[in-house]
Amino acid sequence: MKKGKRIGKAALIILAVLALTVGAYCVYVLLAYERLPDGLTLEVKKSGSADDFLEDFQVRENEEYMIMTYNIGFGAYTRDYSFFMDGGKFSWAKDKESMLASVSEMGDLISGADPDFIMLQEVDRDGTRSYHVDQLEILNQFIKGYYYDYAQNYDSPFLFFPPWQPHGANVAGMVTYARGEITETLRRSFPISESLSRFVDLDRCYSISRIPARNGKYLCLYNVHLSAYGSNDVIREGQLSMLFEDMTADYEKGNYVICGGDYNHNIKKESVENAPEWAFPFPREDIPEGFRMAIDEAGSPEHVAHDSCRTADKPYKEGETFTVTLDGFIVSDNVIVNDYRNMDCGYENSDHDPVAMKFTLE
């Protein structure tokens, strides 16, 4: 009898300690969670030395330029990688060496393409999941001769989920590069879910980078990463409404507008069977007057036959893994699309592949 009471008492003490620990952790997460304020001005920096910059570069009418968008997936998504939020196995990059190799290979690919403007998403600056490596520093070793700004859209408290490999604390964001000088910047905070899902989704935002054109107008680059996990129709509609309002304001001033990034919607006209929630069709009917989806002007279906994203619930297998096009560009009517391609990199270094567009300004 006495032994049983001692065991019962010990069990109660253990349960009480566990309850206090869980409670204290929940309080920590709630207190540590903080969103950046809306309307922040972003700092503009330079990558590379003075010799890397094109002295005569200027945004002009009737001259062709190239722009790329690429969600680099914090360097984790090799072809054999699966992510816990998608039902997969891992929470961190497989190891530091493979992550460094992936980021370097993506930086080298971008540099080799030699675009004039670049939009990147999921670039980690300091994260448990990416072994506390500043990936922007690595990218800048390859992407030289650009002005750039960085917009933070993720700064999580330490997350002990999943239990077999806690996601930890992570700081990540989006980077916009331009050959021409970026003279105006803005970070806009998207409306996001107020439920517990906000702790595992990003602190969603978009950035605006304005580059002066020779005719006195601006080329306005909108770098965007819409919500994926735990969002609902109200949140999605609120995010797009806010984004389109700013884009329209720039267009009505006579500026050129290109919005690129990861929309977390299927941006092709064709619907996809058995699509997961994060791959629903983009609400094209909401695109404001004066704008259009650039993928519709790809020229040849072959240019966009390859999808820009693969699901990460299990390792990638060509012909079996679900794929969809989430990445691309929306452009204003004064931007002429000359060439548009979903680049087929075989998802070697990210669950996304880059999208490239050549354009001229009227």
Topology overview:
Layout: H1 2-32, E1 44-47, E2 65-71, H2 96-113, E3 117-127, H3 135-140, E4 146-155, E5 170-178, E6 184-189, E7 205-212, E8 218-225, H4 233-252, E9 256-262, E10 291-293, E11 309-310, E12 323-324, E13 327-332, E14 335-342, E15 355-361
Concise structural overview:
About 20% of the residues lie in helices and about 25% in strands. It has helices at about 1-30, 95-115, 135-140, 235-250; strands spanning about 45, 65-70, 115-125, 145-155, 170-180, 185-190, 205-210, 220-225, 255-260, 290-295, 310, 325, 325-330, 335-340, 355-360.
The biggest sheet amounts to: 7 strands, mixed
Distance between the termini: 89 Å
| Low-pLDDT regions | none
Q: How much is the radius of gyration in Å?
A: 22 Å
Structure annotation, total helices: 4
Number of strands: 15
SSE class: alpha+beta
Order of helices and strands: HEEHEHEEEEEHEEEEEEE
